Structure formats: structure tokens, C-alpha cells
Amino acid sequence: MRRALILYSSNPIYSQLSTTRAPPGYVVFPKRDGGWIPPSSSYQPPVFRMRNYKCTLPPPLGSVGAASDSVANRPKMASQDEQDPRISKISSAIRVIPNFPKPGIMFQDITTLLLDTKAFRDTIDLFVERYRGKDISVVAGIEARGFIFGPPIALAIGAKFVPMRKPNKLPGEVISEEYSLEYGTDKMEMHVGAVQAGERALIIDDLIATGGTLCAAIRLLERVGVQVVECACVIELPELKGRERLGDKPLFVLVSSD
Amino acid sequence: MSAYREKDPRIHGIQSRIRVVPNFPKPGIMFQDITTLLLDPKAFKDTVDLFVERYRGKNISVVAGIEARGFIFGPPIALEIGAKFVPLRKPKKLPGKVISEEYELEYGRDCLEMHLGAVEPGDRALVVDDLIATGGTLCAAMKLLERVGADVVECTCVIELPDLKGRERLNGKALYVLVESH
């Protein structure tokens, strides 16, 4: 079941949704006019779509240097059922691929969102509306899908874009942060000198699962004295509890998928 | 057509923000690093603006970006001109059905993949990457698009290394760059 919502801090308000799921192993691809192209066969499965979800808009980010960024000072969310009309199209433009990259994983594929020009535009707008005018000078994007969403946001809010990369991709001097995978570890790197102490930063990725990658990105930025204002993703997989792994760092997402 | 815009006043700022890192990824290579360009919001915006001004209103429906640095420049262009963004990726990164195109490296071969169904016959496409060197990757990208019936209008990069003759490898397809580096 997938839910679409905007979450803020530790006060999420969820709505129950009904969805239809495509049969396992079946994947559809969206057509330009919003329909779906089934693979060539006489079988016409039910269309996989999001229905009847709601989203709640969190209060805006606190102003520069305000204590309202801290969890304790964030106002509790009243029960609002404000539905941003853009969210439904964004959510339905994301396709789920079963058993990728390995059996049992339902992969959230944002590439179909990028084919829907209005939905992609709306995705960026939702982030930009939230972060514009908040004195954010750095947008850090995690390789590689964070490179798709980060730069348009950075350009719109007048921030620099800083790529966070796998090892040995960035030329010149870098700092590294190791992080755990399900099996083994991986490393994330950032350029030395890209960011300065005292800068306010966002971290962008397409999706948060366990939160391991985002955590590594937070540590890299904090090691050089940057204040991480918020982590922002298109999709959250709440069952994997990534949000908790971010500790006191707020997380903002557009769509939640169970 | 080579459109090395010496006269556009924005080019100087863009060029000066690109840093050269010697001996990366291996000895003898002078690596053109665009990450420093991305740290200058005005120069980054000027870069995107120059591309958008060229391609807006030309009925381009697809911007294909080559992993990973093509993912940085392609989407802002696509968003501004109202085109779809299609990522072209290394093997096994794209989920679902893909088509593959192999191409040659200095030593060995590599492969570029694109989603089936992302691009339709008749789509007018741009291919975007940060830099063209030998042109091998851009060639593979063009082939992928043409195999599904798209019309590749132009390849577009921030930087060209003209000594490596990538332009000639594009089989007559037009190439547009902002900066040349010898």
C-alpha cells in the first residue's frame, strides 16, 4: 500500500489509502497522455494507480537562526486534510518494479516521473516552495538520482550544488565517510572546500529507505561545520525506519510507500 | 555546428569556474572538473540558460542525460523547455526492461542502457553530458535513441576536448559546446 503525504519531523499524519497492485512480475510503463503501456500481450491487467490519498502540509521551515528548527519548538500539527493537488499525479507517476535489484524488493522507480513533464515540474516546485527564502546556501545531492532532483532545486533557490559521490569519482581532495550496507560497507565522498563552516544545507535523494546513505551525507557535512537544515526525498519507505536513523535531523518527503 | 560562444559575456565566467585536476583518473590526464562550476550559482545558472536559450521552442521532447554528470545538466534543461528527461545509465542500474548499446573504451568495452518505452518514435531528442572527449559515450547514446526511432537533433556538452576528435565520431550529428579545452 502506498500513501502520499508530506511529513515533517516526528509528527506525521497518515491517511489510509486503497490501492490496486499490479500482479507480481508485471510492470507497466506510462504513456505520454497519462495512460499506461502494457507489454505486448493479450492480457490486460488492472492498472496500477494511486487512489484516494491525502497529504498534509507541514508548517514552513523556521527562519534563519531561529530555534524553531529544533524538534521541541516545532508546532504540533493540527489535523489538516489539505490535499495538494499536485501530489496525486506525482505519486501515480512513480512505478514499482518487483524483485529489483533482487528478489523480494519492490523497487520505487522515479524514472517514469521524469517522463511526465508536469509531474516532474511539480515535484521540484514543491521542494522549491518549501526552501526558497530560507537562507539555504548548499544543496547536496547523493549520487546518482540525487543529481536529478538536487540541481533544479539549487538553481531555483540560488544555492550551490554539491555532489556526494561513490569512491574515486571526485577528482582532487576529498573527505570520506564509511557507512553500513546490508552486507558490508560502502563509502561516500565530498570535495574538500566545496562547503564552508556555518553554511546551511539540504540533502537530497530520490528515496529514503534505511537512512544509511543520508546519515553518511549528514556526517560529511557536519564534519566540516555545515548545518544540515533538512533531508528531502521524493519517497520514503517508512517500514525501514530511516527517519529514526536521522536522529534530530528533519526529513521532508512527498510520497510514503509501504 | 560548433557554437563556441566567445562573444557571449557569460562564457568567461563559466570557463573560469571549471578547474583542471592533473593526473586524474590516471597519470597524464588533465581532468576537467565541473563541480567547481556548480558551486557558483550564477555561473551554473548561466550554463543552463545558454542551453535553454538554444533549445527552447524547438519542439524538443526528450533530453537524454548520460550518467552521472549528464544528470546534473540535463534535468534543468528538460524542465525549462518542457521535455521529458531520460537517464542513460551504466549496466544494471535501470530497473525493468532496457535496451543496451556497447561501446569501446581505451581498454575494453562498456555498455549504456535506456528504458524501453521511455522514448517513442518521432521524439526529437537532445543528448547531454558534461564533456565530450573521444565521443564514444555520446555515440552509444545516439544509437540507443535512434534504435527506438527518435530523431537526435543535437548533442550538447559544457566542454569539448577538440584534440580527441569526438566531434568527428558523431557521424554528422550536430554538436554544441560552451567551452573548448586544449
TrEMBL record, chain B:
Annotated keywords: Cytoplasm, Glycosyltransferase, Purine salvage, Transferase
Gene Ontology MF, one: adenine phosphoribosyltransferase activity
Keyword Transferase on entry: yes
Pathway(s) it belongs to: Purine metabolism; AMP biosynthesis via salvage pathway; AMP from adenine: step 1/1
Domain Phosphoribosyltransferase: 41-164
Sequence similarity: Belongs to the purine/pyrimidine phosphoribosyltransferase family.
Name assigned to this protein: adenine phosphoribosyltransferase
Organism: Hibiscus syriacus (Rose of Sharon)
